[in-house]
Amino acid sequence: CIVTFNYDKPMENERERELEAEALCSKCGISTLILRSKKKKIVAGSRKDHPYIRDKVYISITNKDNLEQITTYLDKEVGMEGRHCSSAPSKVITVQYEKPQDAFQHPNHNAMLHALEWMLTRLRKIRP
Question: What is the mean pLDDT of each run of 10 residues along the chain (128 residues)?
């Protein structure tokens, strides 16, 4: 698991913070702990050299009234129960991705999923 702490003020006693972060990683089983403040970054833990986020996005394609509806979600069980779909999906595609922890990601996962749905819908319209 990767945990990031963002500080709004500059960090002081960086070496002390790093030792505390290492101890917290050991105690809580955190693979990577990242402490960030203005122009400073401390990375602690057993996987501090290459912290990557590995996750899955589920894409549900539903045909209703000859219209194709695309829905994306992060939790397979929630999507399969139909809370995100108006009817049972005809196809579910699982996309597993890996990206560096410090690559850009939208802080609001709902906005990210909505943007992904929009892009997928547009791509489906230009498909030959």
Answer: 81 88 90 84 78 78 74 61 53 81 71 83 75
Structural contact between residues 71 and 84, judged by C-beta atoms closer than 8 angstroms: yes
Tokens of 64: 């209703």
Tokens describing residue 122: 């547009």
Q: How far is CA 114 from CA 20, 26, 39, 120, in A?
A: 38, 37, 32, 10
> Which tokens is 119 given?
């892009």
Sequence-ordered strand ranges (E) for 7-90: 32-37, 40-44, 52-64, 67-73
Q: Which pTM value belongs to this model?
A: 0.50
And the tokens for 74? 């992060």
